[in-house]
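Box 3.1. Reading complex inputs
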Amino acid sequence: MTGRTIVTASSCPALPKHVRLRMDEQRGRWVILAPERVLMPDEIAVEILQRCDGKATVDGIAAALAEEFDAPQEEIREDIIGVLQNLADKGFLTA
Amino acid sequence: MSIAPPLALLAELTHRCPLRCAYCSNPLELDLASRELDTETWKEVFTQAAEMGILQVHFSGGEPTARKDLEALVAHASAADLYVNLITSGVLLSQARVEALAKAGLAHVQLGFQDSDAETGEWMSGFAGGHAKKLEVAGLVRQPRLALTVNVVVHRHNVERVPQMIDMAIELGAHRVEIANVQYYGWGLHNRAALMPTRQQLEEMTKFVESSRERLKGVIVIDYVIPDYYARYPKSCMGGWARRFMNVSPNGKALPCHAAETIPGLRFDNVRDRPLAEIWAHGEAFNAYRAPDWLPEECRSCDRREIDWGGCRCQAFALTGDAANMDPVCRYSPFNEKVRALAEQDAATGEDTLVYRTFQGA
């Protein structure tokens, strides 16, 4: 039995093979496809998930987004951890 | 206003199945193998599904692995960018077949168990040796790292083993476990007296599941489906009639849900005759009860109308004789007391004779 995945500033998050982030042309928005689930992530979640390649750290992603959106990095890091921990608890994210 | 496309297609590839589960949700009158859609027609259905905006396909049945062309169908659906789920009893799967399905693009397997205990499980399925085979197949599924959901169907005779069922799913490496109480449709409705749990059993099970969810957060996701005769409010059946899902039966009938044929007077189009998108938008059965334009009269002013959409049409018909009534499991239904009494009477019968699923009908 594996324990709960805890997302921290140094985690390298990634979507597992069975979770797919893709553009839904029909609806004109990004969707997350998972086992018997369709999630409709908001724009911020999409920005975060597009950077979850298993190499970038949460800190690195926070820095990139802080620069891009001209926002405080600390705050963004907390938001990122919130979004990713929620996905990890559903089994939709590895870190 | 244009109608949003469905999110998912339930493809009931066949009604054939080596198991004979007494709670099967398939209709009492099963489609014969000779009338099943052929490979090319199914492929065309998946092409059309992707084009109209459907995102996922659930291969189901019967037992979908009884179709020899399953790999080809998975490959076709996956190439069309559909997310492919397989809902299976597992008993026909070999290692080679699981690998071939994974290679064809399968993303996820929902493996159905009748119990954590072999003897009671095989009594329910009428299939000797099934339980051990399922345990083996769970391991096969995890080898190519396919996502695994373990589904266990719960009723009066196995409800006390819910803790062992959850433990079993964790040991098998499942990402998710569904503790799914029997829903009373098809063969399940026919066998209701032999299956219905008592209210006390339900209360204890719910308490255990809720505490397990907290304890196992991040380890396994527990989905819980209750026997809704005891519920306060109806389930959001199919996410609302003709709002999220489309079901295609083995012989090609396009249905708003797998039990829709039990409602008399509805006319169903066949995918052999009419494009899927047209059936979704204009098919008579789909438009008969499509929310929010249609809602049971008493539900129109209810705060929960966009939560449960008036519940289940098939259940309304089965228990009140009129599919347009609100789902009688709702506490606001005038039939609600009768439904609760039915459940309590059934649970108290001590009935343990099962009528097994068969092509001969009930």
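In summary: The interface with chain A takes residues 4-5, 7-8, 52-53, 55-56, 58, 81, 83, 85, 107-108, 110, 145-147, 149, 170-171, 175-176, 217-221 of chain B (CB under 8 Å).
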